[in-house]
Design a protein that fits this description.
about 575 residues; alpha+beta; Beta-Lactamase; about 15% strand
């Protein structure tokens, strides 16, 4: 039947027919193979992501556990436990009624801000101790991400808490919260108050904290060696778990990781349901059942949203916790790239067939060479080689347009690179002062600590806080307050050496790194210089209200050998400077 067909039609027709048949067979086999390979790749990636989240979660709980043991052994916490216990005993009337009246019902601060009250003016020894220690615990809770911190005596009385919610001053053995998880944590430690023992509760909706999901970690406090005097309890909100589980890198559009308790309720918020999931959404899947039985694996199933997903699962156990950790992604997304690629290939095959039929092999050869060259250029641009010269023959057809598009792509890539660098700078620098933020100063401190440890060098960390700054804001307005902050930042930079480092970490709080100081005396000379410079310089900006500087100094390695301890030491020294009439430095 091809006898009368012209060769210019016959040859393209035959080529296209056999090409299509070959393409269909090859495409079917390739589709099946590619689908299997994509699924296998997704399984490996999902399993790796699951293990990463599991390690991050374990690391989080280990950090909290080490921190509470460290705090329970610190002189400040031990002294606070003994002092509050003594102050509690000296309250003549009902301690619960008296303390809740002083620090909750008569507290001038709004609900949720009760911790802002440093002490009551009732003249009691308890309030004196509260004034001495409240700042330390409030700062500890804020900087370490704990919702609340409790001190409980051996009889179960909550003799101190930071937040001053309705559980404050109650008894965990007889009071209204005796059946709560915080009471469980206290009872378990009180039964066996050996040094370093820990007890972690599961998350549950805790009434005093607006019925929000909370967990409690408890450890005993000892003095004089082995003498047990009370229990230190950290209250941990769900936000920390969400921050670990909600990392979306590598999860695509439909992937997520989440936790499920032994009651089959979520212990972290769903990426898709938000805050409606924790302790509310039930997950009755085969993955959860197997993980809670201690089995790890990966398979395809219908998830809690009735979506077909590839689900990786594993048990997570830590102290009393028995959870299932799940990582899943919708199967449709795994194969989405394959479907899109198939559609593109089919379209390209049809267009190519028509092209062969119409213009023959000459056009194919004419297009192939420049496209090959531009593919090389695009691959180099994809590798961020922005210096490449785009040299394609000048022509006015589609190939020429592609070359011009490559020029635009290159220009956009250069602009994107500049923008990325600018955004990175903005993310790590304070918008008002241009100073580095906490992240940069912490990274710098980690680096210099490692370097100084190897080279036996000494440096100083200073924690700075402007005195009377709140009064400036409240009296003269925030625009004057902003000028005070900017002037202080400028004074710091002008007063320090180029290799020194200053960062703004809060409203009127700064951390200063002074490198290569000879000793503590040399560091104090620099600190006093800063105190004098701030007082002199800010008197011009704010003449009516004296704004001065309280500065705490910590020396490496004399005062501490790690970043966290150095900052804590400097922070405590700063508070001593404030308590000693401000406008000074302290060590």
């Amino acid at each position: 039947m091809f006898d009368n067909m012209k060769i210019k039609n016959k040859l393209p027709f035959v080529i296209i027919t056999f090409a299509l048949i070959s393409a269909i067979i090859t495409g079917g086999i390739s589709f099946k193979y590619s689908a299997d390979q994509l699924t296998s790749s997704a399984e490996g990636k999902l399993t790796a992501l699951l293990e990463s989240r599991k390690e991050s979660l374990t690391h989080y709980f280990e950090i909290i556990s080490k921190d509470i043991v460290f705090q329970s052994r610190s002189p400040t916490v031990r002294e606070a436990m003994a002092s509050f216990g003594e102050g509690w005993k000296l309250i003549d009337s009902d301690p619960k009624r008296a303390l809740q009246a002083l620090y909750i019902s008569d507290n001038p601060f709004d609900v949720g801000q009760k911790e802002s009250l440093t002490h009551s003016d009732d003249g009691s020894i308890y309030s004196k101790y509260h004034s001495d220690f409240h700042g330390y615990f409030r700062n500890l809770a804020a900087t370490h991400g704990y919702y609340d911190i409790f001190l409980v005596n051996q009889k179960g009385d909550i003799v101190y808490s930071v937040k001053k919610e309705n559980d404050y001053a109650t008894n965990l053995l007889r009071g209204e919260w005796k059946d709560s998880h915080i009471a469980e944590a206290f009872i378990q430690i009180n039964k066996n108050p050996s040094v370093g023992s820990l007890y972690l509760t599961d998350y549950f909706n805790y009434g005093p904290s607006n019925n929000e999901p909370e967990a409690f970690l408890a450890t005993p406090i000892h003095i004089k060696g082995e003498e047990y005097i009370g229990v230190l309890i950290f209250q941990m909100p769900i936000a920390a778990l969400n921050s670990v589980m909600h990392v979306t890198a590598g999860m695509g559009e439909t992937g997520e990781t989440f936790l499920v308790g032994s009651d089959r309720l979520m212990r972290s918020d769903s990426r898709f349901l938000g805050s409606k999931s924790i302790l509310k959404t039930r997950v009755d899947t085969d993955s959860v059942d197997k993980a809670l039985k201690g089995i790890s694996g990966i398979h395809t199933e219908m998830d809690y949203r009735d979506e077909e997903v590839l689900s990786a699962f594993a048990p997570f156990k830590y102290m009393s916790l028995n959870w299932a950790i799940i990582a899943e992604v919708e199967r449709a997304e795994i194969l989405l790239g394959l479907y899109e690629l198939t559609a593109i290939l089919l379209t390209a095959m049809l267009i190519g067939s028509v092209g062969i039929l119409l213009v023959g092999y000459y056009i194919a050869s004419d297009i192939a060479t420049p496209i090959s060259n531009m593919t090389t250029i695009m691959n180099r641009l994809a590798d961020n080689d922005l210096d490449i010269n785009i040299s394609v023959s000048q022509r006015k057809d589609e190939v020429g347009c592609m070359a011009k598009a490559l020029e635009v792509f290159k220009s956009n890539a250069i602009e994107r690179d500049k923008l990325q660098k600018k955004l990175t700078h903005m993310a790590h620098h304070d918008m008002l002062t241009g100073l580095p933020t906490r992240k940069l100063i912490m990274d710098r401190l980690q680096d210099i600590t490692a370097e100084s440890g190897k080279e036996s060098r000494t440096f100083a960390v200073m924690f700075a806080d402007l005195d009377n700054f709140k009064t400036v804001n409240d009296t003269l307005g925030h625009h004057i307050g902003d000028e005070v902050i900017k002037t202080a930042a400028r004074i710091f930079k002008e007063s320090l050496k180029e290799e020194d480092f200053v960062a703004r970490i809060g409203g009127d709080e700064f951390i200063i790194l002074v490198t290569d100081v000879a000793d503590a005396d040399a560091a104090l000379i620099v600190a006093n210089k800063l105190v004098v410079a701030i007082k002199t310089g800010l008197s011009v900006v704010c003449a009516t209200i004296p704004v001065t500087l309280s500065l705490g100094v910590a020396i490496y390695p004399e005062d501490a050998g790690d970043v966290t301890s150095l900052i804590r030491h400097a922070d405590e020294a700063m508070y001593r400077a404030k308590e000693a009439s401000k406008n000074r430095c302290s060590r």
